[in-house]
Amino acid sequence: MKALLLLTLSLFSVSTFAAPKSELWQYWNSSNENSAIKVNHQKWQTILDKYLITERGNTLFRYKSVSSSDKKSLKSYIRDQSSIDPRQLTKAQQYAYWVNLYNAVTVDLILDAYPIKSITKLGGLFSFGPWDEEMVKINDKKITLNDIEHRILRPIWKDPRTHYAVNCASLGCPNLQTQAFTAINTEQLLENAASTFINSEKGVKVTDKQVRLSSIYEWFAEDFGTKSQLIAHLAKYRPELVNWNGRVVYDYDWSLNEKDS
């Protein structure tokens, strides 16, 4: 019996990641475009300033170095955001709100479990990661990371660049941005994030015989369109791919985006 359980766990650990589809949670699909509310993301920005570093094109997080007071500050930021009704914000404020909340909760999860080698080790016994775990309560509604990404951000904004904005604490993931998203800087951050990722080997690696793409483009093919539409998207940031029509393979590194010191 024990051997069977170990075999089951072993098989599960190498199972293919099944990406959720974009399915709108209608409750959150409203905004107040006359709102003058300015959401304060300074606590999150302070965490990024102190613990996120750029190294060889990657942004790495110094999880090991985060102080107890900063861990409390991060949790305080998440509580602050959870007390806001995002439906009362403008659409531009909402996008920044949801992206920052997703990324802050992800970092908080890693800090609570640290040391850990990969976010995929979190969650229940038969879970591949923590994305379906209820993380915050907003307007008395329990919300998971998958809710934020796949039921709010993707279906409401329908912008494939969202995949470059939310970060899953993994080396294969598009970089966690050094700046907190705001209503003002979102477009610039999305463009910078897309360009950086597509021009990195973890995003797009070109050889004579093939293009190796991040598995993000396979998991979320519905957001990037047909192969020709995907190539057009990539070529916008990497012109050498304009006429690419060769073999495409996919890869992803779930190792923690950690900087030891």
Automatic annotation (TrEMBL):
InterPro entries: DUF547 (IPR006869). Residues 1-18 form the signal peptide. This is DUF547 domain-containing protein. It comes from Vibrio japonicus. Keywords: Signal. Residues 87-198 form the DUF547 domain.
